[in-house]
Amino acid sequence: MRKLTSISTVIFNRISLKKVIIFLCLFNLANNSFSQNLLLNEKEYFETLGLNIWVFNNEYNGMFFDEKAAGIEFIHHGVRTVTGGAIRLQNTPEQWDLIPKMISRKVNRAINSIEVTLRYEDFDFDSKIIVTPQGKGFVINVMLDKPVPKQLEGRAGFNLEFLPTSYFESNYLVDGKAGTFPRYPSGNTQVWPSSQKIPQFAGHNTFDDRGKNEFIVALPLESGKNLILAPENPERTVNIYSEDQDVMLFDGRNLGQNGWFIARSILPANKKGKVLTWYVEPNVIPSWTREPIIGFSQVGYMPSQKKVAVIELDINDKALGSASVFKLGDDGKFIEKLKADVKVWGNYLRYSYAKFDFSTVKEKGLYYIQYGDQKTNTFQIEDDIYSKTWHPTMDVWFPVQMDHMEVNEAYRVWHGKPFLDDCLQAPLNHDHFDGYKQGPTTDTKYKPLERIPGMAVGGWFDAGDFDIQTFSHVSVINSFVESWEAFKVNRDETYIDQKTQFVDIHRPDGQPDLLQQIEHGVLNLVAQVENIGHPVRGIVVPNLHQYHHLGDASTETDNLPYNASLKPYESNGGSSGTLDDRWAFTNRSSFLDYRTAGALAAASRALKGYNDKLSVKCLFIAEKLMREATALEKEGKPDEGPMSKRGRGSDMIAMLQLYLSTNNEQYKMGFLDKIWKLLDENLEVNINSALLALPSMNDQYRIKLRAYVLNYKSKTDMENTANPYNVPIALRGWGGSSQVINWAISNYYIHKSYPDIMDKEYVYQGLNYIFGCHPYSNLSFVNAVGNRSKKVAYGCNRADFTTIAGGVVPGLIFLKPDYLENKDDWPFFWGENECIIDGGAWYIFLANAANDLAQKKG
Q: Which part of the chain is the Glycoside hydrolase family domain (predicted)?
């Protein structure tokens, strides 16, 4: 290929620029580059100081398709800014567009290269991508053993995607022509006939074909041989030079708000061998090191509580010898209250860590930590630090998640009454999206697409989407009942009227909000059993162009029951011919029957005295489901779908809750027959059930359980020493906030029953992690809780780059081989930022548990 002697040569040979842009580009590229080359490390990615290049260290997901966490990716000055380097079939691929499968990945250390083979099975189309460092950058070669298939000519190309928020307020140059990255999508589009559309997952379509047979295609912002991104920003500058095909720059947000900026070159037709060559040179700042992250609780601490800040350092950085704590004095000035040693902890994944213990600081007040030149934001030390931390979750987040209700907050309407047209029986043998499937039978009395009456009641949106997921409801109800029974949470800040289906936030109505939320969740579960016949996997919209809906949930459907005798979008006032009503996925499983039985049995206790009629109904249905689930197991009917993996112990949980509600010895004996075997199989999963039963059992049970508790503590202590935060950090593609919360809840139950085994600091430690003492940043993972918390989250308002107060984000996702990430400038990463209902319920319990411990001295 034609080598670049310098980027400035390319600029002057090709372009005539405005003087200021030329100056900025040349100054930054010439003065902020250096000669250190990319090297292939032992973790099988390329690195140099300030830059990592991953080549399919992470693959596309077979269930969620394009999660923007696969292919060729950059960690550029500590931040993942580039993803999706792969052969793609669209200019701006959406999540559900076809993704290539990685057939092989070869790391060739002898020639310092990585080669991947990709395949599109639907088109019998294979390609190879070879990445090799050269100069200050690297070369990408695309190789084909045979030409691009005819149906993919002009469609198959190499894409590289750039995170929009990393390039806002920056410019780009294409063959010398300057442009500004748009803050809001403003590029041109075209409408193409659907006959030219590459099929999406399982024949679904993200485009609403209202009366037309077409789809939208984004057009390039610019096109040329040389693309330079952010020449004025040395941390983000990237140069791309194509030897043959033009490089086109696209804005993927024209089709979906979660789209990225995309550099793309089309693969040529009728050609094999080497068909495309890019030279890519990300700028690297000399001697760059990542700034330390000082992890601490944004909520603050109690005076007597252990207080340890964890300092995350660049692997090339060296820990300072000491740090200080400053307190605000009566004169309005901060004075140093403590200067103490910083102790090196060691390496974890890609960074090194040190700890700063300031537990000796006990005086109440306002503080900050200083480490070198860095000062944290302020935090409090107070006795009642945990007393209000759960209020936003209960007062705001859960009301906003309420399905089938209009939800108002002061001058704002979060959403109108959604899904009053619920719901239809899902069709047979249907492979849906987001894990939903319907098998060869309905397991109900309804025919496919027949209306199921009585379902427009109760329930919560599962997360940032607007579906009902039954298992999540079960988890929430169980947790809410535990909060009610353990702490008698009487807070009343929400007006909830089931008759008019209206909710008003910050308006007391004389009833405990927690009981009203239990009632709301139970209403949907009861409706499932009464109208469908049993609990169902879930209820979700039929079309992808509905599923990616943002904003007001009441506009995801027309709220009119489907009428097959009418034409699409035609209405007679009471029904419509638009097939947009949600579908119920109804294949039955003993697992879901058992778990629903357990939740309804628990709810029957909490609702007694509040809604006695519903309480009695809950217990009746719970016992009915228990009998029917047992019969299903005897018939050998297997559990189906992704939830079935959680089936072990479901009958045990149901029997425990039924025993606690009825005192029936038969349920007690059934529980005791199961619990010890399950503890032996999976101690961490089943320990909470064993502890929940403890107050209702005898001394022999307590003595026997003690041995398991000792084993649990020893096991989790050993596992948690692997990281400097000493909590269970999840190394997976969905963040581990809930895992830490549930670990801390288990610790609370153990401390209450076996205080000599488990210190209450193990409870506070989990909350400290959630509140900011964690990797990557020190933001609180609970929106609007703590001095500095998440600024964006994956909720119904994610396109507005904001949050819903009280939502608990999943936290840190793990990207292989060594990177933990939680972005606060891009809400669309659901694994990092999507708040879920069961996680919120667990957090409410944990916050109340910490407050309970705080109120008890000693």
A: 456-790
The pairing of beta strand 365-371 with beta strand 322-328: antiparallel
Average pLDDT, the chain: 93
Residue 1 has pLDDT above 50, yes or no: no
Across 821-836, b (16+ Cβ under 10 Å) vs e yields bbbbebbbbbbbbbbb
Predicted pLDDT of residue 857:
66
- Tell me, letter by letter, the H, E, C secondary structure of 264-299: EEECCCCCCEEEEEEEEEECCCCCCCCCCEEECCCC
Residues 6+ apart with CB under 8 A from 366: 327, 328, 378, 379, 380
Could you state, in order of their start, the residue ranges of all structural domains in the chain?
7-282, 293-381
What is the Cα 858 distance to its own chain's centre? 38
What token pair was written down for 505?
């936030």
Q: Check if 7-282 and 293-381 are the same fold.
A: no
- Residue carrying structure tokens 């909000």: 513
Query: Is 0.85 topped by the overall pTM?
Result: yes
CATH T-level topology, domain 7-282? Beta-galactosidase; Chain A, domain 5 (2.70.98)
DSSP state of 528: I
Burial of 779 (0-12, 13-18, 19+ CB in 10 A): buried
Contacts of 241 (CB under 8 A, 6+ apart): 4, 10, 225, 226, 227, 278, 279, 280, 281
Predicted pLDDT of residue 419: 98
Q: By C-alpha distance, which of 245, 239, 275 is closest to 129? A: 275
Separation of alpha carbons 104 and 395, rounded Å? 51
- If you search the block for the tokens 């070669």, which residue do you land on? 141
Q: What is the 3-state secondary structure (H, E, C) of 323-373?
A: EEEEEECCCCCEEEEEEEEEEEEEEECCEEEEEEECCCCCCCEEEEEEECC
CA distance 109 to 106: 10
Q: Strand (E) positions, 24-156?
A: 39-40, 46-48, 51-55, 72-76, 79-88, 101-108, 113-120, 125-134, 137-144
Bridge partners (DSSP) listed for residue 179:
172
pLDDT of residue 207: 82
Query: 3-state secondary structure string, 602-653?
Result: HHHHHHCCCCHHHHHHHHHHHHHHHHHHHHHHHHCCCCCCHHHHHCCCHHHH
Which token pair is 510? 């004389």
Around Cβ 597, how many Cβ atoms within 10 Å?
31
**Tens digit of each residue's pLDDT (9 = 90 or more) over 24-35:** 334 344 444 444
Pair 227, 179: CB distance under 8 Å: no
**pLDDT at residue 210 greater than cutoff 80:** no
Residue 36 pLDDT class (50, 70, 90 cuts): low
pLDDT at 637: 62
Residue 200 and residue 96 in contact, taking contact as beta carbons nearer than 8 Å: yes
Question: Which of 70, 52, 48, 74 is CA-nearest to residue 61?
Answer: 70
CB of 225 closer than 8 Å to CB of 11: no
CATH of range 293-381; options 1.40.20.10, 2.60.40.10, 1.20.1740.10, 3.30.200.20 = 2.60.40.10
Contact assessment for residue 824 and residue 803, using Cβ atoms and an 8 Å cutoff? no
* Structural contact between residues 694 and 705, judged by C-beta atoms closer than 8 angstroms: yes
Q: How confident is the model at residue 214 (pLDDT cuts 50, 70, 90)?
A: confident
Please name the residue that has the structure tokens 């029986």: 425
